[in-house]
Amino acid sequence: MVDQSMKGFKKILQKEGLRFTKQRQGVWDEIRSSHEHRDAEDIYMCIRKNGVNVSRATVYRTIDVLVKNRLVRKMDVGDGRNRYEPRLDEGHHDHMICVETGDIIEFFNEDLEELQEKIANEHGYTIVRHVHQLFVKPLNK
Length: 141
Prior knowledge:
Dna Ligase, domain 1
């Protein structure tokens, strides 16, 4: 059985006028194999550690193409380093970012989703997409 995500990746590269290479495949494999929210430098270092000789420029360009084509989500968590996560067959979720530890917690809350839609409707709009990030710190006990 052909891996549908790899097939989609190859199609996107072709559409963007880029060749499919083992380096670009290494970027895609590294991102989709992890559920972590990682920056481009971490992705680059892991690919190199796995024995793939890839340049930073290729990693950054490939990530940009993946973000542009909605296979990868780009997150700004407020520390100057964007984080990336795969967008494969996962349901929608939002994020809480701990300002003390940098931990990123994924969550979904149906009440919050309904409230956002209600607010948009009250102002004459419907939500097309949204990014919801809560910056949090641990409760003092």
